[in-house]
Design goal:
The structure is a single chain. The protein is an all-alpha fold and 362 residues long. The protein has one domain: Up-down Bundle (Methane Monooxygenase Hydroxylase, Chain G, domain 1), CATH 1.20.58. The protein is built from 15 helices and no strands. Helix 3 packs parallel to helix 9, helix 10 packs antiparallel against helix 11 and helix 12 crosses helix 15. The protein starts with 6 loop residues before the first helix and ends in a 26-residue tail after the last helix. The relative contact order is 0.11. Bound molecules: protoporphyrin IX containing FE. The site of protoporphyrin IX containing FE has 24 residues, from helix 3, helix 13 and helix 14.
Amino acid sequence: MTHPPTYWSYLRLEELLRLQNGNELNEDSVSRDELNFIIIHQVYELWFKLAIRELKFVRVKLSQDKIHEESMPLIVHSLNRIIVILRLAEQQFELMETMTPRDFMEFRSKLGTASGFQSYQMRIMEGIMGIKKEEYLKIGNMTPIDFFEVSTSETAPNIWGTISESFTEPSILDGLEQWLFRTPIQTSTPDQSSDGKVVDEFINDYLKNYDEYQKQSRSNLYQKNSDVDNRVLTQNQKEFDAIKSFLMDSNPNQKRIKTAILFIETYRELPLLTWPRTLIDKLVELEQHFVLWRTRHARMVERILGRRTGTGGSTGVDYLDETSKYRIFKKLWFVRSLLLPSSFKPELKNPEYYEFMSNFVS
Ligand code: HEM
C-alpha cells in the first residue's frame, strides 16, 4: 500500500539534509562557517535550476515561427520569475558576508581547485540566453567552456552534454532577433518588395531628427564657443557617427533588426507594441540583474578573500570585475542611447495599423 505524501517525503527532506557533509562525508567535521558556505552554494544552484527551467521555456516560445499574442504575457511572466530569483540571489551574498576573511581561511584549503568556475549551471544559463563561446574571457589560453570540455567530456558526459546543448541550440537571443526581424516597421514587413526602402526611409528620417535634436540641445547652452560647447559638439558628432553606423548596418537583416528595436521603443505607447516593448524591457532588466549579480559577487569576494588568486586559478576580483562587462542583448542596450523626446519622433505612417483591432501577429 502506498502512503499518502508527507511534507518530508514530498520534498525528499531527509536526503536533502544529508547533503551538507563536505569532503569528509561527515557533518561533524564541517564547521558552522563551512556549513554556511555549503548551504549558500547549494541554495544558489537550486535557484539556478529553477531559472534554467524558465529560460528554456522562454527559448522555446521565442523560437516559434509565429509568436502568438497570448504567448507574450507567458514569456514576460517567466522572465519576471528569473528576475526575482536573481534579485534574491544578489541579496543572498549578505549571508556569506557574515563569515569573516579569517573564518574562510580556516577551511579554504579544503576546496582544493574547486571553484565557482565549475558552476556549470551558470554557463548553461549564459548559453541559453545567447552568449557565444568566443565572447568569454580567457584564463591562460582557455575559456571556461574549453575548460569544461577538457574536464567533463569524458569523465562527466552528462554535464558536458547539457552544457554543450545550451551552446548549440538556438538561443533566446536568436529567437528574439528572428522575431524582431519580422516586426512591421511603418507597417512594412520583410516579405514586401519595398521593405528595404521603407526601412532606409525610417532610418534617414530618424537621423535627421536626431541631428535636429542635438542642434537644439546645443543651442540651449549659454556660453557660446566655450570649452564646454566645443567638447559637447565633438561628443555629439561622435555619438551621431556611432548611431549612424549602428543603424546603417551593411547586413540588411541586422539593419532591420536594429531598426525594429528602435521602432518599438519610439512608438512604445501604441497598443500593438505594448507587449513587444514589455518583452524588450524585461530582457534588459534580466541582463541588468545578471550584471548586478556578478558585481555583487565580486564585491563579496573582495571583502572576504581580498585580491588573492582564485581557487580556479583566475586573478580573482580583477577577473570577476571584467566579467561584469559581458552583454548578451547588446543591441537592446545600444538603442537606449539613441531615443528621442516625443516631439522629435518621425511621423508614423498608418497609426491605426498598430491599434488592437489589427490582425497582425508577429
Ligand atoms: C566566500 C565565498 C566565495 C568566494 C571567495 C568566491 C570566489 C570566487 C573567485 C575568486 C572566482 C573566480 C574564479 C576562480 O579563480 O576561482 C569565482 C567565480 C565564480 N563564483 Fe564565486 N566565490 C564565492 C562564493 C560564490 C557563490 C555563493 C556562488 C554562487 C553560485 C559563486 C559563483 C561563482 C561563479 C558562477 C563563478 C564564475 C564566474 C565567471 O567565470 O563568470 N561564488 N568565485
